[in-house]
Design goal:
rod-shaped; 3 strands; three-stranded antiparallel sheet; alpha+beta
Length: 130
């Protein structure tokens, strides 16, 4: 009998959330229901995107030069554009590609700069090229 009294007294001393939930099934079910409802409400408010929105601060200039070789495109299009836009503020990097019939110049805008203003400056500088 003494061993039974020790077991019951040890069982009575156990306190904690798990012991409480074992003794109170209704409270455990209500807590589960509250978690489920909260999860459903939160899941509906989470913004889900297949393609996240981001801005890539790049300006691309493409010029066609029909019938020209890459060397002619570089001399006739790429170099004049690079020289013209090199003086524009807020440009981080200039990359150019010359291929047959077309020249492409990519301008990377500095972070924090307004890309629209830089684009206007680039357009005005390119329009000055003769």
């Amino acid at each position: 009998m003494s061993s039974e009294s020790n077991n019951t007294s040890a069982g009575d001393n156990r306190r904690g959330p798990i012991a409480y939930m074992v003794q109170n099934h209704v409270a455990a079910n209500l807590l589960m229901l509250a978690f489920l409802i909260g999860g459903i409400i939160t899941a509906r408010q989470v913004k889900q995107e297949v393609f996240p929105e981001f801005t890539l601060d790049m300006i691309t200039v493409q010029m066609a030069y029909p019938g020209a070789t890459p060397a002619e495109v570089e001399d006739g299009i790429i170099r004049p554009i690079e020289l013209a836009v090199s003086g524009v503020d807020n440009i981080k990097r200039i990359r150019a590609t010359a291929s047959e019939n077309i020249g492409v110049v990519n301008l990377e805008v500095l972070e924090g700069a307004d890309p629209d203003l830089v684009l206007q400056d680039v357009k005005s500088e390119i329009d000055r090229i003769q």
